[in-house]
Amino acid sequence: MEAEADVMIVGAGISGLATSLGLHRLGIGSFVLESSDSLRTTGFAFTRWINAWKALNALGLADSLHQHHVTLDGNVTSSRITGLQTFEMSFKAEGKHGDHEVRCVKRNL
Ligand SMILES: Cc1cc2nc3c(=O)[nH]c(=O)nc-3n(C[C@H](O)[C@H](O)[C@H](O)COP(=O)(O)OP(=O)(O)OC[C@H]3O[C@@H](n4cnc5c(N)ncnc54)[C@H](O)[C@@H]3O)c2cc1C
């Protein structure tokens, strides 16, 4: 197969496809290579950090995703054997690079 494109992108995951879409909006053609022959649908939710949401917003995709999102305050992990809490992480804490936020879009709403 012959194809002409300004940019070659390896991998049709969310990063590759978002990059291709962003380039397309700027009038730059790209060609996306994907080694897998089928879609993978593992995972239970769509969780991104604040910078990824900024990128999705710039692509005009964030609003539709926000309609189904819940903001996560943090993550608590417990042992199923003892019932004791083993780990806790707040997503509201101010990180090294400033405030961050995690949002989770439930699938199958
Ligand atoms: C087990 C597991 C569960 C997860 N669950 C969740 C979840 O519930 N919610 C969530 O938000 N995130 C989840 N994640 C994280 C999520 O998968 C990643 O954040 C996201 O997929 C990263 O996107 P990406 O485009 O950077 O990479 P990927 O999604 O990994 O995409 C890279 C693509 O490049 C292709 N590729 C690789 N090498 C080549 C090559 N040489 N030539 C051509 N194609 C190539 C791969 O086949 C793949 O399709 C999970 C990850 C794992 C491993």
TrEMBL record:
Signal peptide: none
Entry's Gene Ontology molecular function annotations: FAD binding; monooxygenase activity
Source organism: Prunus dulcis
Keywords: Monooxygenase, Oxidoreductase
Similarity section: Belongs to the 3-hydroxybenzoate 6-hydroxylase family.
Coiled-coil stretches noted in the UniProt entry, renumbered to this chain: none
Domain FAD-binding: 4-77
Superkingdom in the source lineage: Eukaryota
InterPro entries with a match to the protein in the record: FAD-bd (IPR002938), FAD/NAD-bd_sf (IPR036188), MOase (IPR044560)
UniProt-recorded name of the protein: FAD-binding domain-containing protein
